[in-house]
Design goal:
The chain is an alpha/beta fold. 35% of the residues lie in helices and 25% in strands. It has a single domain, classed as Vaccinia Virus protein VP39 (Rossmann fold, 3-Layer(aba) Sandwich), CATH 3.40.50.150. Strand 4, helix 3 and strand 5 form a beta-alpha-beta unit.
Length: 205
């Protein structure tokens, strides 16, 4: 994440959060408990919706984002273990978590399938991946626009890629998608509006 982008991120996302994303987070995380890894936790937007009984580990590689994440956790009076780490090389033992949460993060990681393979590794048997990501458009016209603007957008938006087919990456990483919903992220910049959200579980090796 670009160092200058973190202070503006919450403001950049505010209209979309108010229009739809906040409720999507609430619904996805309503029954998430136990040992939880929030992957690429950013400024902590998921924290208000996680059970207070959960043990939450927040993995975030960007120091500026981590600073805001810790502040939000204090404001919410939550105990959160913030770990500075890349998603592609998680410093956790295998089968450490009941749930891995990935919300608006796989667009920025260098290697999404490696990050997802790491998520699969740290999940316990029967665990799940809960995801909310913006993705490549299915509409050919919007997809062409995404491809045209991505070389400019990515460096300006903290490494965000807009043409990733994340549901395919989830499946290639060894997950079975149990539920998948596509919806436009209202009030977002048009090239990041196509989104998916749902739940996936690791396939047996």
């Amino acid at each position: 994440m670009s160092w200058w982008f973190a202070p503006f991120y919450d403001g950049f996302m505010r209209k979309s959060e108010e229009a739809c994303v906040r409720e999507w987070r609430r619904a996805l995380l309503a029954d998430v408990g136990g040992d939880v890894l929030d992957l690429g936790a950013g400024t902590g937007a998921n924290l208000p919706f996680l059970s207070r009984d959960a043990r939450v580990v927040a993995a975030e590689p960007d120091p500026a984002m981590s600073k805001q994440l810790r502040l939000r956790a204090r404001e919410l009076n939550l105990s959160v273990d913030v770990v500075t780490t890349d998603a592609e090389a998680l410093p956790f033992a295998s089968e450490s978590f009941d749930t891995v949460v990935s919300t608006l993060v796989l667009c920025t990681v260098r290697d999404p399938e490696r990050a997802l393979a790491e998520a699969k590794r740290v999940l316990r048997p029967g665990g799940r991946l809960v995801f909310l990501e913006h993705v490549a458009a299915e509409d050919p016209g919007r997809y062409r626009l995404q491809r045209w603007l991505e070389p400019v957008w990515t460096p300006l938006a903290g490494g965000c890629h807009v043409t990733r087919r994340t549901h395919e990456s989830i499946e290639r990483a060894g997950f079975t998608i149990e539920s998948l919903q596509r919806e436009s992220m209202r009030k977002a910049v048009p090239i990041v509006r196509p989104s998916i959200r749902g739940v996936a579980r690791p396939r047996s090796s």
